Amino acid sequence: MPKALPPRCMLVMNHISWLDIIVINAHFPATFVAKSEIRDWPLVGWLCTQVGTLYIERGKRAAARQARETISEMLARGTLIAVCPEGKTSSGQSVGHFHAALFQPAIDAEAMLQPVALRYLDPTGRHTEAAAYAGDTTLLQSLWAIVSTRHMRSQIEFLTPIAAIGASRRPLAEQTATAIAVALGVRRPRSVHMATRTDADPADTQV
Fold this sequence. Notes:
Order of helices and strands: EHEHEHEHEHEEH
Number of helices: 6
Number of domains: 1
Distance between the termini: 29 Å
Largest sheet: 7 strands, mixed
Number of strands: 7
């Protein structure tokens, strides 16, 4: 894990659970980008607000344009931004499609992308789905699975940074998604079957 990150930096990570935000902030406090609905979620919304989250209204072009400008300005000022470009959580057994729109502010700000591979492990060091908040899992079920799992730990791997300056957002999205999948040793399916809950990223918004 690096001792420091570049002055203009966007963390780009795979997305497994609402717990991801807490895990990342324990190491590098960041402003996360999330859809506005998250703010009203019981407990999770409060936690996201407390750690610092930029909420975005999805499906509105004016809001998306404003969000893009805001994120770019924050990056230029040196604010660490974190995004989960899959736009939905998974079991951690795959890395889905990365939505390219979220990479545009990094290009505009001439920032560095810091790919982050995140996994949750059981006491033997093997992958566990206890932290996953995906599919039909309710918040209550997710909370119970986490608190009832003994000695679960998170593992964060910071990969080689990628310069966004002069790049195009689609190749950047593909490059970071592939790097994270390779680091985790998981597949990148053409159609993602395992993750259906959209909860921490405005992936369908043209930021």
